[in-house]
Amino acid sequence: MRNRTCLLIDDDTEEHEIFTIAMIRLNPFLNCVTLSSGTGAVEKLRNDPGFTPDFIFLDLNMPGMDGKQCLAHLKNIERLQKVPVIVFSTSSNEKDVKDTMNLGSTGYVVKPDSISELVGTLSLIINTPKQVQPHFFFPKSRV
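^ that's the sequence the OP posted. Answer follows.
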């Protein structure tokens, strides 16, 4: 069985570090790939058919192509149709949650304040076989 791969698309490199640390704490055998822009992510995923992550975590507020635009593009890539795309944002705006759900996101996570909270939230996502509900929302205080 191959190691699972998680992709984080976020323009904030500090978030890359925090997310990678949390993933390593959760499971050191998970591969964590980070990309800094929606445009770069869409290009990589369109042009590299050998790269299909098991989970995609997507920030909303990015310059250029924002998270909603990126999500719409990702959902048009055939091999990603069954890959869970989880919005990972500081926004807890109900409209953002609904908009991204309508665009096809699997869930929505408000970025926690600590690495331990992030590890707990990621554990719920990564270690739960298929989500029972069609869309999930984890506010900051979830774990």
